[in-house]
Amino acid sequence: MGYIKFDKSKLINLEYSLSREILRTNRAGSYSSTTIVNCNTRKYHGLLVCPVDELGGERYVLLSSLDVIVVKNEASFNIGLRKYRGDFYNPKGHKYLEDFDTELIPVTTYRVGGTILKEEKLFAHYEEQFLVRYTVFESSETIKLQIRPFLAFRNIHHLTHANMCANTKVEYIKNGIKIKMYEGFPYLHMQLSNKADFIPVPDWYYGVEYIEEQKRGYEYSEDLFTPGFFELEVDEGDSVIFSASTVEEKPAGFKSKFTKNANAKIPRSNFRNCLKNAAQQFVERRKGDTLIIAGYPWFGAWGRDTFISLPGLALARHKLSLYEDVLDTQIKRLKNGLFPNMGNEENPGYNSVDAPLWFFWTLQNYRSIGGTEIWEKYGEAMKSIIEAYVKGTLFNIHMRDNCLIYWDAPGKALTWMDAVVNGKPVTQRRGYDVEINALWYNAICFTLELAQEEGDKEFIERYKHLPDLIKKSFIDLFWDENLGYLADYINDEEGVNTFIRPNMVIAVSMPYSMLDTSQMKKVLDVVDKELVTPRGLRTLSPGNPFYKGIYTGNQEQRDNAYHQGTAWPWLLGPFCEGWLKVYREQGVQKVKNLIYGFEEVMNEHGVSTISEIYDGDPPHSPRGAISQAWSVGEILRIIELLETKYSE
User: Fold this and answer.
1) What digits encode the pLDDT tens for the residues 181-228?
2) CA angle 476, 440, 335 (to 5 degrees)
3) Is 496 left (phi over 0), alpha (psi -120 to 50) or beta?
4) pLDDT at residue number 8
5) CA distance 220 to 59
6) Residues 642, 595: contact at Cβ < 8 Å?
7) What gap in Å lies between CA 260 and CA 258, rounded to an integer?
8) Which domains are delineated in the chain?
9) How far lies 395's CA from each of 398, 406, 565, in Å?
10) Running DSSP on this structure, what letter comes out for residue 267?
11) What is the distance, to the nearest Å, from the Cα of residue 56 to the centroid of all Cα atoms in its chain?
């Protein structure tokens, strides 16, 4: 049995199997994702999902799914699976399921009478090519395989419907066909390693439903087009490979290419390897840039998420070059002291007050494992950020006379708690934020440290007075001795907000902290009591009247819960680092329990990765994106910290 196990009796239970999804990427912006039973439950699912530069660079679902029909003695058995209106599934291929394994690549075994058919899927590295190998393991007779592709040709965020504009004509190529349903798209080339007949039976399949979109309050029904099907005869021991690609390939090389790509995979044979595999999937190299995708299947490359997740994704995997490539890409986009947090290169959104400050923390981690020449490479960027924050930049982000950072932008939410409902931020937190000023102090101190080492006297003279003033103002404003913890935010109109939120742990975990050991311990103890769960830190104490412990419903309902109680795995990073800082060896076991507890989720939600969020209430069900960069990154980073500094 493999490391990630699935109970055979549960596989055919759709309530169980449809909640478990797999993801594979090509490290160049494309991905393949579906459930473990090959039934798409999201509009984001698809076997070949690619960025299309001609259409703005967003991702598009080209190949949605495949039906595979086993024909024996003139009887047909379809091992595909789709949902239609009224909880009607057709075909019902899950009833033929024998086994599913994902240790190296996703492998599904089907039994159709006396025939055992194995399906193995992979995504080629840095190529827009999805490959699936079908092998007949047992069969007392020659059988026919029919492979029918279902096409979408639409943006991942949208749905498609039957229309007269679609170009449904196919062109024949070596061992297959190609089709381009709309202008601006690339051709989709579908080929087989073996010679096969293509039977043109163009048709629309109406009303395919995606249950996860229905749960999330979105449109959830679409029509898919199929141009026909491939048909070939196979015997016991035969293998055939189906390829879907944006370029025409040479079928003679499919089998060797499949084997080579499969052998290059890191086996998902233990918890650490699962996380390493997941970490690789967030890296995207396109058009000379190296980006970190915040999460799959719907997020893009976000600045804040990039800096928080990069240490774990790169350093814990000992990839200094990856670290440098990502930082170099981000530096090119620095403007007015801010990094773009959302949007794309053509339309960036500089709406993050903390992303530039996390940049300094990212550099500290880079340095801690051997990164060099930081001042030469990034010193000008560091100084420009500090200067922008001192003088003031977009969204009224500026340093006040008390040397703390304050911001005020009506209708905006610039911290990581940035959900907006009906144009109004749920947790705006404008003014002085506890984590922003903790990051600000850390950034100033680290930059002064490097300036001292490099002899930058001008910078030292200009800013050497700041650390003491920041620290005094911070303690005076944020620390409440009676409560024994830090305020969350303070502004001129509302005054001091003392809601118990996890942001205060960042003031503990930073390399340069303004808190003494006694204050750190009090903060950690309050957070441990009110916010820590086995799946991350709650974003609000359950004792607060605004607490929402379940993240479910339509978008408005979910956004209202997003930072009002929902648990986030990434926050365990600063919490565990702070816990180890204060409790040292006595705190190791607690940290191990929290971090290695995520081994339990390797066969849930996003299989072999960590979800974006979890319910604040038990049993802490997984929610949101099936694979999130900073969830994986921070767990990996703390594992590395445990193994390098606290191993027995």
Assistant:
1) 999 999 999 999 999 999 999 999 999 999 999 999 999 999 999 999
2) 145
3) beta
4) 82
5) 18
6) yes
7) 6
8) 8-263 (2.70.98), 271-645 (1.50.10.10)
9) 9, 10, 27
10) P
11) 21
Q: What is the C-alpha separation between 631 and 648, in angstroms, rounded?
A: 26
Quick one: which of 433, 440, 486 has its CA closest to 466?
440
> Strand 20-25 to strand 605-606: parallel, antiparallel, or no bridges (unpaired)?
parallel
pLDDT at 266: 87
CA distances for 620 relative to 14, 286, 505, 555, 636, angstroms: 21, 36, 21, 19, 21
The structure tokens listed for 481 are 């001795």
What count of Cα atoms within 13 Å lies in the side-chain half-sphere of residue 500?
Answer: 22
SS3 131: strand
Encoded tokens for 601: 């989720």
Question: Environment class of residue 277 by beta-carbon count within 10 Å: exposed (0-12), middle (13-18) or buried (19+)?
Answer: buried
CA distance 554 to 149: 32
What distance in Å separates the CA atoms of residue 507 and residue 477, rounded to the nearest whole number? 14
Q: Across residues 70-92, what is the average pLDDT?
A: 94
Q: Residue 489 — left, alpha, or beta (φ > 0 → left; ψ -120 to 50 → alpha)?
A: beta
What pLDDT does residue 345 have?
Answer: 66
- Per-position DSSP letters for 182-246, written without gaps between them: STTSPPEEEEESS--EEEEEEEEEEEEE-HHHHHTTS--EEEEEEEEEEEEEE-TT-EEEEEEES
Predicted local confidence at residue 379, as pLDDT: 97
pLDDT given for residue 444 in this prediction: 98
Cα separation, 537 vs 532, whole angstroms: 5
Burial of 237 (C-beta count, 10 Å sphere; 0-12/13-18/19+) = exposed
